[in-house]
Automatic annotation (TrEMBL):
InterPro entries: SAICAR_synt/ADE2_N, SAICAR_synt_PurC, SAICAR_synth, SAICAR_synthetase, SAICAR_synthetase_CS. It comes from Ruminococcus albus (strain ATCC 27210 / DSM 20455 / JCM 14654 / NCDO 2250 / 7). Gene3D superfamilies: ATP-grasp fold, B domain, Phosphorylase Kinase, domain 1. Its EC number is 6.3.2.6. Residues 9-235 form the SAICAR synthetase/ADE2 N-terminal domain. Belongs to the SAICAR synthetase family. This is Phosphoribosylaminoimidazole-succinocarboxamide synthase. It catalyses: 5-amino-1-(5-phospho-D-ribosyl)imidazole-4-carboxylate + L-aspartate + ATP = (2S)-2-[5-amino-1-(5-phospho-beta-D-ribosyl)imidazole-4-carboxamido]succinate + ADP + phosphate + 2 H(+). Keywords: ATP-binding, Ligase, Nucleotide-binding, Purine biosynthesis. It comes from the Bacteria. The keyword ATP-binding applies. One of its GO terms (biological process) is 'de novo' IMP biosynthetic process.
Length: 239
């Protein structure tokens, strides 16, 4: 990939920037230390987060590819930059829950930490103006956000990601409470895993102490945010 040239910035999101390259099918994502919560209402910086999220995402995406889930990963270019396949993002936040927490606990009146009898697959419509409202398959179909086949593929991959990650994180002493993933469509219509898998997008609790090792420390002003990200990096990548 030595001859890929970084081009103009295409997009700046809350946690990442995206750049064009000289190959129309490839883009470069550049992870920032900026952190937001509550639909952008709370803003801050988590020092070193961009490096950790870039490296952890790529580590997990490689493992998931090997487990049969196609991803957008092409090549890690630097601590913060990764070359990925260009996709159009399916406008769904795909959430899997193993244990009650966050908005589920609030909405359902179930205390945080209660184990669910089966994993839950849940969708939100990715739309900042609307605050990413909760939707179901029928909304997605009726609004043309995805086809039935695409939803089936997304559900199959999401549960495969969950099975793999629950076991992987158990092995490093972490309970995977819930997470959000996003999928993209390549120019030929193939659905692949995109975006990131990191302490920004997953709830990680230490298996023994139940200490939170994720973005909830930022959302809830708990302190020790950087240390939690570093601890996850150490457990996953051994450094
Ligand atoms: N999540 C995310 N981005 C969002 C909303 C949620 O990455 O915009 C992740 C969040 O970190 C958690 C899971 O999705 O791991 C479920 O989040 P929940 O619906 O409980 O929302 P929250 O309580 O974070 O608002």
């Amino acid at each position: 990939m030595a001859n890929v040239v970084k081009g103009e910035q295409l997009y700046e999101g809350k946690a990442k920037k995206v750049y064009a390259t000289n190959d129309p099918d490839l883009v470069i994502v550049d992870y920032k230390d900026d952190a937001t919560a509550f639909n952008g209402e709370k803003k801050g910086t988590i020092v070193g987060k961009g490096v950790i999220n870039n490296r952890m995402t790529n580590f997990m995406f490689k493992k998931l590819e090997a487990a049969g889930v196609p991803t957008h990963l092409v090549e890690e270019l630097s601590d913060r930059e990764t070359l990925v396949k260009k996709v159009s993002i399916v406008p769904l936040e795909v959430i899997i829950r193993n244990v009650a927490a966050g908005s589920f606990s609030k909405r359902m009146g179930v205390p945080e930490g209660k184990e669910l009898l089966t994993p839950i697959l849940e969708f939100s419509y990715k739309n900042d103006d609307l605050g990413d409202p909760f939707i179901n398959d029928y909304y997605a179909l009726a609004l043309g956000l995805a086809t039935k086949e695409e939803l089936d593929t997304i559900a199959k991959y999401a549960f495969a990601v969950n099975s793999f990650m629950v076991d992987f994180f158990k092995g490093v002493g972490v309970d995977l409470i819930d997470f959000k993933i996003e999928f993209g469509k390549t120019s030929d219509g193939t659905i692949i895993l995109a975006d990131e898998i990191s302490p920004d997008t997953c709830r990680f609790w230490d298996s023994k102490t139940h200490e939170k090792l994720d973005k909830d420390r930022f959302r809830r002003d708990m302190g020790g945010v950087e240390d939690a990200y570093q601890e996850m990096m150490k457990r996953v990548l051994g450094e």
